[in-house]
């Protein structure tokens, strides 16, 4: 009888423990309310736990719920949805421009998808929106919804500036898009700013000229000219490349005949320009060197990626002092990239009798996903394009060069997290 009593007590104890655990669990609806107030990486991990949780997150946004995500210190790789390529070709005497998309969500990356609805040259992209230059001026559009907003005529810089610049070749454009999806606030959904900037550099003038368009007001703001005292030099070694956007700040890599600098324009809060000088041993010359601004974490301090043909190195900036470190760290070497190519089923050109020379071009950096697009050439024969994940410092994908006729520009296309949540079931 004693044995029967002990055997009967065990199931009752387990049942009681199960009831206590069930009573202490948090309902999925409450978990969703918590998850949408964390950060992108946490939300993704939460949605990846089970089908029910993904459904609840989708239902939350589908019924008009808003995401209140804080800035994350981690990249979210799936936010990189594709790579926009601008090409043109001639039909008779007429030039025909087109945009194509390499879709990272598709299994087959051997074909390009034509982008319809908006034509023009891509100038900048941010948070799911793309800024293009079209025949009538500038246009901001959302490739996911095909909604577009044409900006009013951009103002012209003063005559003395226009006389020294080659129009759009040296004018730099920046697109800043808010994190929240404010439906109905603008034609494309979210509020945004467009910055038109130009660096005037000569023996006696070192000024940054810029004007800002605000979607909230629907107009271009006042013309600004700020003298950059700490900038040395009388001419640029190359035009300013596409800006790196970190929060509300735009950063440019500036290589002059007297030194190398990073310029930072604070756009929304205080319109001012800050300058930091790169170390004297920063590599700048030679046809094999390519530089690109990036960040090692989402919303983090800028780093400068530099290639020398055999490796990619990163020069970091101290968050406390703002000074640049004198020694870089190696991010990835060419042999690692080529090993990935071999394992992925690609083929590298066979070694020739001549010395094998590698060229690594850094094409763009995607701020939300932390991805760098790399183009690798050996003996001037294109090997392919690679996505480098800066968080893991590993190659995650590649596609071959398709011999596109007259490729003139490329741009990352990252989705806004609001637009991405409804696709959780197919992307996780």
Automatic annotation (TrEMBL):
Residues 241-395 form the DUF7595 domain. Signal peptide: none annotated. Residues 10-21 have a biased composition (Low complexity). Coiled coil: none annotated. Pfam families: DUF7595 (PF24523). Residues 1-21 are annotated as: Disordered. This is DUF7595 domain-containing protein.
């Amino acid at each position: 009888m004693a044995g029967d009593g002990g055997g009967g007590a065990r199931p009752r104890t387990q049942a009681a423990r199960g009831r206590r655990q069930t009573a202490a669990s948090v309902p999925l609806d409450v978990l969703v309310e918590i998850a949408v107030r964390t950060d992108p990486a946490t939300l993704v991990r939460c949605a990846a736990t089970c089908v029910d949780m993904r459904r609840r997150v989708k239902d939350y946004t589908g019924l008009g719920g808003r995401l209140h995500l804080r800035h994350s210190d981690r990249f979210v790789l799936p936010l990189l949805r594709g790579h926009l390529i601008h090409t043109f070709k001639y039909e008779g005497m007429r030039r025909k421009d087109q945009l194509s998309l390499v879709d990272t969500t598709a299994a087959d990356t051997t074909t390009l998808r034509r982008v319809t609805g908006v034509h023009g040259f891509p100038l900048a992209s941010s948070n799911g929106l793309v800024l293009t230059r079209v025949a009538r001026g500038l246009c901001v559009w959302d490739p996911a919804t095909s909604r577009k907003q044409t900006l009013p005529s951009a103002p012209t810089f003063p005559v003395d500036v226009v006389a020294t610049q080659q129009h759009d070749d040296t004018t730099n454009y920046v697109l800043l898009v808010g994190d929240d999806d404010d439906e109905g606030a603008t034609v494309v959904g979210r509020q945004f700013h467009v910055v038109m900037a130009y660096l005037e550099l000569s023996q006696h003038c070192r000024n940054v000229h810029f004007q800002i368009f605000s979607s909230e007001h629907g107009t271009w703001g006042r013309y600004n000219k700020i003298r950059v005292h700490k900038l040395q030099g009388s001419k640029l070694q190359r035009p300013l490349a596409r800006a790196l956007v970190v929060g509300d700040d735009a950063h440019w890599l500036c290589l002059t005949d007297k030194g190398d600098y990073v310029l930072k324009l604070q756009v929304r809060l205080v319109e001012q320009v800050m300058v930091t000088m790169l170390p004297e041993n920063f590599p700048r010359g030679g046809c094999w060197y390519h530089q690109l601004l990036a960040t090692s974490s989402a919303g983090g301090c800028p780093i400068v990626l530099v290639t020398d043909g055999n490796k990619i190195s990163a020069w970091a900036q101290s968050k406390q002092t703002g000074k640049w470190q004198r020694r870089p760290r190696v991010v990835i070497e060419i042999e690692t990239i080529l090993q990935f190519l071999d394992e992925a089923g690609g083929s590298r050109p066979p070694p020739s009798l001549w010395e094998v020379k590698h060229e690594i071009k850094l094409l763009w950096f995607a701020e939300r996903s932390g991805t760098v697009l790399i183009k690798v050439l050996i003996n001037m024969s294109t090997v392919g394009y690679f996505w480098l994940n800066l968080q893991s410092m590993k190659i995650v994908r590649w596609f071959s060069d398709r011999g596109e006729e007259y490729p003139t520009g490329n741009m990352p296309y990252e989705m806004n997290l609001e637009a991405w949540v409804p696709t959780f079931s197919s992307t996780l």
